[in-house]
Recover the amino acids of this structure.
């Protein structure tokens, strides 16, 4: 049985027995290489679930939709390792109760889909551990290397050109499972902390605010990067910040549901004498 | 015999127009995005795109526009109005769905208040459109009763000749004729074969959709929630749309001095139409998505007798969760059977 079929069967069992109220997975998209998020609440509809190598979107963000988990019922969700890490962070940051989440774990190698064993987030600790080991090199690409070698001035110009394209649609924020704030700082207008205009200053402010808020929390799922309609390589910023946090604090985001948020905790023996 | 503009003569035209004071704008690929931008030479233009990622709207209604500078003094308030930078422009190589989008928005910007920013730019721009010889899975001009060679909103329509040799010229407006009279000697007479137009399959029955939308019973239909459950409210669809026109007015600066700006806004934002009391008449994403569809295919045509959609397909093409106008209208046309 293919993994797709196994997961459909499991979804059917869970829904018919009432063990979960909903399965969030992927369905067919407009074209052959697109998949769309799918919400299944009836066992008769599980055939619509698709699982293949183009199931890329990290679906964990839907779990914090207003009211979804407030009835304390369980919800099942298809997740890659990044998505599973996101569950740990959301749980650590008190945004959800991890016991309510039933995981259909999978990973894609080349174009092959592999099932990840486990149901609850704790069971994936080894998978996450092995990503941590491989992480520093895994996400690196030519452009990243190129930027690393630039002088600060060149690097600034590079990002200036990229941020000039930003139209402040906030798609990056909306696509990100970690951007769950009901009222984002850019939406606060009493006072207006961040300019709403998408001019040079406003675009820098926005992208810098987001980079900081995601440091040590981003799981590098790539949702923001893929959602950005003007193709700003946001993944490069995320990866750089993740490396920084790993190097400085040996913190790899989303290791466990009790992991302390790195930029929101302070230890007395910290090597720095102040916190930002 | 018709007038032909040969591709290898385009740079001469660009030079001629530039010396006549025009800025030349056209489809380009820059910094990993395709858009309409100013060029110096014809070689910079990219005619191979189905259509640019960014729409032509940006040239008439930029994402952030200064309106006035203010200084508040003890006895008075000084204001200095900012008007858009003036100067004639030629937009060479717009797509029909982008050009028609601008004429769709004309009545909106000229309705109870004449938006000077929009009309100054409209009056100073000559839109030279190139008919499409290729389309992708998301193009849907034909579903909106338009076509890959729609002339609506264009001053000139160019029909590509076979083998990328050039374009057959169709002059549509006085503004277009004037711009082309400046290059009359560069054009040639000819009877070359035209490249076949793109074939764009019709995706839904627009009239059936409109009838369904106009039925007040369907306002509270469960359909809205089901179709929009995966919408993440990212606004890409509205910001890339050539006809979406919502904006917000913001003052930037401190209490005494600053600048008033007109910034894009989107019905997909949770803050859109939020009252100061905190109440929001469209408090859910499904209510916001319904607003987008109703506005485009019910309220806007009710007021201006034209749908607020030109069928460019950008909303579906770019949606990170594979939603869009196309799917919604396809579903509605099946509901209305
Ligand atoms: S910042 Fe981007 S890559 Fe990181 S978790 Fe959010 S969406 Fe994923
Ligand atoms: S998705 Fe891209 S364009 Fe939109 S706000 Fe984020 S960085 Fe800017
Ligand atoms: S929607 Fe029609 S007019 Fe627009 S690019 Fe596609 S084929 Fe051309
Ligand atoms: S682009 Fe898609 S997800 Fe984003 S607001 Fe539009 S429909 Fe919703
Ligand atoms: S609604 Fe979609 S298809 Fe219609 S004009 Fe806007 S972006 Fe294009």
């Amino acid at each position: 049985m293919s993994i797709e079929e196994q997961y459909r069967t499991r979804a059917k069992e869970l829904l018919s027995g009432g063990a979960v109220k909903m399965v969030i997975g992927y369905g067919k998209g407009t074209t052959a290489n697109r998949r769309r998020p799918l919400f299944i609440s009836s066992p008769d509809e599980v055939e619509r679930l698709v699982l293949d190598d183009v199931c890329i979107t990290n679906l964990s963000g839907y779990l914090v939709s207003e009211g979804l988990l407030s009835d304390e019922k369980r919800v099942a969700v298809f997740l890659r390792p990044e998505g599973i890490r996101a569950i740990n962070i959301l749980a650590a940051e008190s945004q959800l109760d991890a016991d309510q989440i039933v995981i259909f774990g999978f990973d894609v190698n080349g174009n092959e889909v592999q099932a990840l064993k486990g149901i609850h987030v704790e069971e994936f600790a080894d998978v996450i551990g092995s990503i941590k080991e491989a992480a520093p090199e895994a996400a690196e690409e030519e452009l990243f290397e190129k930027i690393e070698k630039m002088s600060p001035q060149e690097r600034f110009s590079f990002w200036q050109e990229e941020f000039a394209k930003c139209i402040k649609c906030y798609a990056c924020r909306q696509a990100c499972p970690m951007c769950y704030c009901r009222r984002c700082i850019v939406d606060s207008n009493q006072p207006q902390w961040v300019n709403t205009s998408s001019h040079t200053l406003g675009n820098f402010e926005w992208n810098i605010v987001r980079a900081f808020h995601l440091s040590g929390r981003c799981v590098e799922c790539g949702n923001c990067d893929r959602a950005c309609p003007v193709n700003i390589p946001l993944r490069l910023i995320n990866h750089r910040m993740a490396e920084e946090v790993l190097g400085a604090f040996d913190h790899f985001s989303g290791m466990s549901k009790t992991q302390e948020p790195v930029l929101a905790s302070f230890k007395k023996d910290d090597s720095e004498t102040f916190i930002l | 015999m018709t007038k032909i503009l040969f591709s290898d003569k385009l740079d001469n035209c660009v030079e001629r127009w530039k010396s006549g004071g025009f800025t030349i704008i056209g489809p380009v690929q820059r910094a990993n995005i395709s858009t309409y931008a100013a060029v110096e030479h014809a070689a910079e233009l990219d005619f191979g795109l189905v259509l640019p990622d960014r729409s032509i709207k940006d040239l008439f209604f930029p994402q952030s526009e200064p309106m006035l500078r203010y200084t508040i003094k003890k006895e008075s308030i000084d204001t200095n109005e900012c008007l858009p930078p003036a100067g004639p422009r030629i937009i060479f190589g717009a797509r029909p769905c982008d050009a028609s989008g601008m004429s769709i928005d004309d009545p909106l910007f000229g309705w109870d208040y004449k938006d000077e920013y929009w009309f100054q730019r409209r009056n100073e721009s000559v839109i030279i459109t190139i008919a499409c010889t290729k389309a992708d899975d998301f193009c849907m001009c034909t579903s909106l009763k338009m076509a890959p060679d729609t002339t609506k909103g264009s001053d000139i329509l160019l029909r590509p000749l076979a083998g990328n040799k050039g374009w057959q010229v169709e002059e549509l407006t006085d503004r277009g004729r004037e711009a082309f009279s400046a290059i009359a000697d560069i054009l040639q007479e000819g009877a070359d074969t035209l490249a076949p137009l793109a074939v764009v399959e019709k995706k839904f029955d627009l009239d059936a959709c409109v009838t369904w939308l106009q039925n007040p019973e369907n306002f509270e239909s469960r359909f809205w929630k089901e179709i929009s459950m995966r919408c993440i409210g990212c606004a890409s669809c509205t910001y890339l749309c050539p006809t979406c026109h919502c904006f917000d007015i913001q003052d930037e600066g401190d209490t005494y001095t600053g600048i008033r700006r007109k910034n894009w806004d989107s019905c997909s934002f949770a803050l859109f139409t939020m009252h100061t009391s905190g109440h929001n008449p469209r408090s859910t994403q499904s209510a916001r998505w319904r607003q987008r569809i109703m506005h485009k295919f019910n309220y806007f045509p009710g007021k201006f007798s034209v749908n607020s959609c030109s069928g460019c397909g950008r909303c579906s093409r770019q949606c990170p969760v594979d939603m869009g106008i196309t799917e919604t209208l396809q579903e509605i046309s099946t509901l209305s059977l």
In short: Chain A touches chain B at residues 29-31, 34-39, 57, 61-62, 161-162, 164-165, 167-171, 174-175, 187, 192, 195-199, 202, 223, 226-227, 229-231, 233 (CB under 8 Å). The first strand of chain A starts at residue 22 and ends at 28. The beta strands of chain A are 22-28, 35-40, 75-79, 101-109, 112-116. Residues 139-264 of chain A form one domain.
